[in-house]
Amino acid sequence: MSAGAGAMSPDRTIEPREVPLGGLRGLLVHRTLPSKEIPLIGAWCFLDHFGPTDHRMQVLPHPHTGLQTVTWPLVGRIRHRDSLGSDLVLEPGELNLMTSGDGVSHSEFSEGEPGPMHGLQLWVALPDHRRGGPAAFEHHPDLPEVEGPGWSGVVLAGSFAGATSKATVHTPLVGVELRLEPGRHEFDLDPAFEHGVLAVDDAVTVAGRSVPHRSLQYLAPGRARLALEVERPTIVLLIGGEPFEEEIVMWWNFIGRSHEEITAAREDWEAHEPRYGHVDGHDGQVIPAPPMPHVRLRPRVRRA
Fold first, then answer.
1. Is 259 annotated as a binding residue?
2. Which of 23, 52, 182, 273 has an alpha carbon within 20 to 30 A of 210's alpha carbon?
3. Is 106 annotated as a binding residue?
4. Domain residue ranges in the chain
5. Is 30 assigned to a binding site?
6. pLDDT tens digit string along 22-54?
């Protein structure tokens, strides 16, 4: 059974778990995807919420396969360097999107004087027709903005409220940052999509259900309208997409289709194979791959 195959899971709230990013002393993030019950929402397969915090991001070069990374800072600046030669500082309100293809590596470090940092990083699983081939990087400083009575939004990916992002996607997706004033707000959704709503900086009521701060509310396909209610000015993240029907095996920073494919990706990283390139500016330092688990990796499945 694929990650999206079988009966769709009913609506449910996914609680975050705390994970140190970049090692045991790394930046603490709150992760809601993947979860045991819901491995993906559309092709969105990973969601980290970091901050607000004064802890700096310091993530040495590391590899990726079979996915796109999507980085969206709310507060603080992040320097991105990758094996394609990209070297830029990402500002709040700007989007970085990196497509791994068959292999890429990158680093992310806080930039500038110490100060608060807050933001989101997501991964998108790539379909078979794009998960191989060359890597690519996009920086989007001017994303489309949308607004309505008591709310405004930025379309990170896909289309929402009549606006479409220029960020490249390879399956039907949507990603939107919404800033809500106190009250009730209703939005049109694509009923073919499953969706998730992340309570970024306060609790939010999603379709009548109270969702705590940092939690993610999963919404099954078939919903054409969504009501959100907040008691104070609040940011939420709305993601969604057509259920992803391809099997994925996901481990560490790799997405593949089999245990053997993941093992090969790890071995190539440890052997410094050319597929991952080289990230300048770190004197050869990289994050080593952890040992493979003692059990066979299996495709992630949805648990109804």
1. no
2. 52
3. yes
4. 12-241
5. no
6. 655 668 899 999 999 999 999 999 999 999 999
